[in-house]
Structure formats: structure tokens, C-alpha cells
Amino acid sequence: MNKGADLREKRIGVLMGGISSERQISLMSGKAVLASLVRSGYHAQGIDVRDNIGALLKQKHIEVAFVALHGRWGEDGTVQGLLEMMKIPYTGSGVLGSALSMDKCLGKLVLTSLNIPTPSYQECLSAEESGFPLPYVVKPAREGSTVGISIVRRREEAGPAIEAALRYDTKILIERFVQGREITVGMVNGIALPVVEVKPRSGFYDYESKYTKGLTEYLVPANLPSSVEEQACNDASIIWRQFELSGCARIDMIVEGDVPQVIDINTSPGMTETSLVPKAWSHLGRTFDQLVEEILTGARLKA
After folding, report:
1. Domain 100-117+179-288 sits in which CATH superfamily?
2. Residues of the chain with pLDDT > 70: what percent?
3. Are strands 43-48 and 196-200 parallel, antiparallel or unpaired?
4. Deepest of 58, 115, 131, 236, by most Cβ within 10 A of its Cβ?
């Protein structure tokens, strides 16, 4: 059976927006996905995920959900759990993979148990200075898009950095600062895409560098030694299997020396035509519409 053809008879809801700090980015992703599905002949409509999402999905008779949500309450297993209970097949990772990837502290435990290189870290629950060796990065444990992130190079910067992160989460990740080349490995249905190198002009790939045109250069494919590229893709594939990921994901790394250090796992990466996964996908000579359709055909219940 042609699964794509079968899905053309379904009512597809593109879940976007949400209530996380990444709402505006999610709306951009969702609108791009929705336009793509409509171009490809699917019966798709946008669903802004706010209150009473279950009732809204029932009211609109949604049969398949394309998850274009980012951040908490959308990428952390919560919406995935709702869709499982409502028996609505959906794109992307399931409850376990989403929750584990979203919580950077728990994800670190799994990465270290798998012997996958990742910067040393410490969990923090208060604004007290940690004593962690300088320099280090402070991150909310369950946020994305570098929201609430700071680099601490002097002890007096620690308190303000932790307080800034605590505005977004009650649990904070303190992580060794890694100097090196920033790369990302996109995964689509278990296949690693060409490695992308990210070169922010400021030297730090923060929120502004990510979403302001011209502040970051992207190299596809990254000009890496073959051994480094192979390790990056191999580690991304291990993460895909062990974290039980599905659909589309993106593994962010920093190459320190010749060792890719994993710094983040995204189970619902940006899906505009200029986002990182679509950039890598287009290098294969395939279109954004083909990427969206490829992800859609993997929609299913995971529980």
C-alpha cells in the first residue's frame, strides 16, 4: 500500500504555536509545514495548541497529527501522551524519546551510560554559585532554542546566569564550556543527513544568531575529516536507537579536537525552509515538500 496515498484521505492537523518560550518559532515551522502539505494535495489544517487541545482535535475530527511544536508542552512528551490516549497517529518521537531528550540532565545520564562524548556537567536547583570549574555554560534543563542560556567565565557572573536560567525552569544544567566547531546531524526516519557546520559571527550560537538573518553562516556539508564526520553520524544513529526517536530529529554537537561532543537532542527541530534539517535534506537534491511528506508517512502511535 502507498502510505502517502492513504494519508491523502485523512484529515491532518498541523500542531503549532503552543505555550512555550518557543511559540513564535513553532508558528513559523507549522505554517511552513502546512503550506507544504497543502501544496502536496493533503487535507491539512493548522491547529494552534493552547487550551482544550483535546476538545479542539475532536471538534475538527483530526485523524493524523503533524507535530510542529517546539519546547515544553509540545516536544517533551506531553502532547504525545495526549495523542496516544486519543488514538491519533502523530509524527515524531513518542512519549519516552521526547521526554528524555527534552530534559538535558536526564539525557546526559543516558549519553554517559552509552559512552557517547558529552561535556561534563552538574545539575543545579538554586541560584547559589556551584563551584563548577570555569568556564561553563548555564542552561535551563528543559528549554530549547538557547533560551535562558549564558556562558560563565568569571565567578561573579554565576549568580546572574543561574537566576536568568531559573526564570525558565526549576532545574538548571551547568555544563563545561567547549570551544570548537559547532555541527549538527539531522536524522530522518533513522537515516543520518549530511553534517551541517554552524558558524555564528558572534562566536556563540545564541537565540539572536539562530533567528536573525545574516548573523550565522551554514556549511553543508561540513568540511570535516572523514573520521570526525563518521563518528558524528555514528553517535547520532546510536542516540536515535537508544532514545527511541522517530520521524525527524537533530543532534547538535561541538567538535573539540577531533571529538564530537553532544550538547543537545532535538526531537522536533525547526521546519522552515531555511532551518538546519531542511538545509541538510536539500543537499541531497530533494525538496522541502518531499521532506515534509517523508516525515508525515512515518506518523503512527508509539505506545
Report:
1. ATP-grasp fold, B domain (3.30.470.20)
2. 93
3. unpaired
4. 236
The three grid cell numbers given for residue 285, joined into one nine-digit string: 537534491
Domain ranges for the chain, please list them.
Answer: 3-91, 100-117+179-288, 121-176
Q: Residue 139: phi, psi to the nearest 5?
A: -135, 145
pLDDT tens for 25-68 read 999 999 999 999 999 999 999 999 987 899 999 999 999 999 99
d(CA 136, CA 118): 13
CATH number of 121-176: 3.30.1490.20
Does 3.30.70.100 match the CATH number of domain 3-91? no
Question: Are 294 and 280 in contact, with CB atoms under 8 Å apart?
Answer: no
Q: Please spell the DSSP secondary structure of 245-301, one letter per residue.
A: --SEEEEEEEEETTEEEEEEEESS---STTSHHHHHHHHTT--HHHHHHHHHTT-B-
Mean pLDDT calculated for residue range 258-269: 97
